[in-house]
Amino acid sequence: MTIKDLFSNPTISKKVLIKGWVRTFRANRFISVNDGSCLQSLQCVVDFENTEQSILNKINTGASIEIEGTLVESQGKGQKIEVQTEQIKILGECDPDIYPIQPKKHSLEFLRENAHLRVRTNTFGAVFRVRSSISFAIHKYFKENGFVYVNTPIVTGSDAEGAGEMFKVTTLDLNKADVNDKNEIDFSKDFFGKETNLTVSGQLEAENMAMGLGKVYTFGPTFRAENSNTSRHLAEFWMIEPEMAFYDLNDNMDLAEDFIKKVLKYVISDCKEDLEFLNTRLINEDRTKPAIERNELNLIERLNFVVDNDFKRISYSEAYEILRNSKPNKKRKFKFPIDDWGVDLQSEHERYLVEKHFKKPVIIYNYPAKIKAFYMRMNEDGKTVKAMDILFPGIGEIVGGSQREERLDVLKSRIKDLGIDEKELWWYLDLRKFGTVEHSGFGLGLERLILFATGMSNIRDVIPFPRTPKNAEF
Ligand code: 4AD
Ligand code: MG
Fold first, then answer.
1. Same domain? 223 vs 256
2. How far is the CA of 215 from the centre of ligand 2 (A)?
3. Which of 56, 132, 152, 194 could cross-link 205 (Cys pair, CB 3.0–4.6 Å)?
4. What one-character DSSP code corresponds to residue 9?
């Protein structure tokens, strides 16, 4: 039996057999066993008169163990039920002198260095169960709303975002590779006969799939070689990218908002115990902070607030006016002051809008064309594009999306202006030749949503084995 099954359906006097890892062993009598199926550990009471000393000696934190016994009502406080052990088998010993995860509070930094073992703590067990629940809720939402799940390539020749922050994929020995007459490496000799990289987004391929399947979504790993050593950036992260034929920007924003709310709603009810634990953890952490940095709402209140309230929608120009006239801008407190219309919004500006001004999630739409990707649909003003970003409290940007440019001539001239080679995108342009339609989509960063749902503050703590600059351990 898993410990979760046992707690959810406890039958007193029933014989049980459980397997798990020892969390603690107190007074030579009480073993606390966790098997990962739920947050709670099961207390097992050792019949020490009938247990050999050699076995007792091996019941150490971290050891794997098999216990047969009888489920009884607990004599002690702190738990309703416990197991009266009859037979204990040590499956795998664990030397307490060298096992890094001791039964005490460890710092998140220390646990990151021991990412292979941190899943055996309450915090990381909870985080990764929530991650799993969110992933399931995402598939469930799309399934229930008529979307087709598609898989787009991981190795690709295209640079969807045009940002050039890509990891190269090659089988060439770069020390000995042939060069062409311009002294550039000759990738025609490479495995694919051209330059390839790990995908930064499945969007362009998803657009192709939507032009036949109607509503599609991708859910897969995404790679960015941006050297941003922040608590919000990973070099390898998971992105969900829905793409819908016949959707305009408003439909797109409606979908994104509904999607996030439904996913969070599912997780609130599916992960009650884990969220309660993470909530308490956060309340305790908050107590150690200066009053102004403390959260007004606790984790669960925050999640419910997002589910129950409309996101604020404003255009870039409105956001620009608010920021330009804001106190921190007038007092020159922003690192990047807001003077001229058209500047990109930095995370300090996003946080001001979301956390100080509106105090709720904000969707900003109609951004200046200059600061957005080539594929976004140009507005009539010739200056802005039908882009939208969703900004979340404590996180910043969680979703980036747009209505796509479906007009061949406009798209071609955008591509030309940005100096992108049209030939590379022939298949993308084909969509605009053969039955083009209005369409839209967005990308949600899975780890950023998990940050919000769990209240963790570093993105490295919500993916099992984080990939960041100078770090690819495990
Ligand atoms: O805003 P981005 O770059 O948008 C796209 O890639 C579009 N092609 C999506 C689309 O329209 N189909 O990225 C989308 C989201 C961001 O809002 C953020 O949540 C997440 O992906 N993201 C990252 N998450 C973790 N680490 C990084 N380095 C991230 N870069 C983007
Ligand atoms: Mg973006």
1. yes
2. 21
3. 152
4. S
Q: What is the CATH number of the domain that holds 19?
A: 2.40.50.140
Number of domains comprising the chain: 2
The protein residue with its alpha carbon nearest to ligand 1, atom 29, reads: 233
- Give the total residue count for the chain: 474
- Banded pLDDT at 357 (limits 50, 70, 90): very high
Ligand 1 atom with the shortest distance to the CA of 234: 26
CA distance 259 to 262: 5
- Ligand 1 atom 23: residue of nearest CA: 445
Helix-helix angle 408-417:426-433, to 10 degrees: 150
CA 118 to mean position of chain CA atoms = 18
Beta bridge partners of 313: 363
The model's pLDDT over 262-310, given as tens digits with 9 standing for 90+, comes to: 999 999 999 999 999 999 999 999 899 888 888 889 999 999 999 999 9
Q: Which ligand is nearest to the CA of 204?
A: 1
Residue 193 lies in a domain: no
Q: Are 65 and 34 in contact (CB under 8 A)?
A: no
Cα–Cα distance measured from residue 428 to residue 436, given in angstroms and rounded to the nearest whole number = 11
| Dist. CA 202–CA 373, nearest whole Å | 14
Write the CATH number for 332: 3.30.930.10
Range of the domain at 266: 120-165+200-461
351 lies in the same domain as 409? yes
Residues 333 and 443 in one domain: yes
Distance from the CA of 330 to the center of ligand 1, in angstroms? Answer: 31
Which residues in 215-338 belong to E strands, given as ranges?
215-223, 236-245, 312-315
Residue located nearest, by CA, to atom 4 of ligand 1: 400
Give the model confidence (pLDDT) of 145-187 as tens digits. 999 999 999 999 887 777 778 999 999 998 888 888 888 899 9
Pocket test for ligand 1, best of 134, 239, 240, 471 (most atoms within 8 A of CB): 239
Region for residue 267 given its phi and psi (left: phi exceeds 0; alpha: psi -120 to 50; beta: otherwise): alpha
Q: Is residue 160 part of a domain?
A: yes
Structure letter (DSSP) for residue 227: -
Which whole number is the average pLDDT over 413-431? 92
Task: Report the distance separating Cα 201 and Cα 374, nearest Å.
Answer: 14
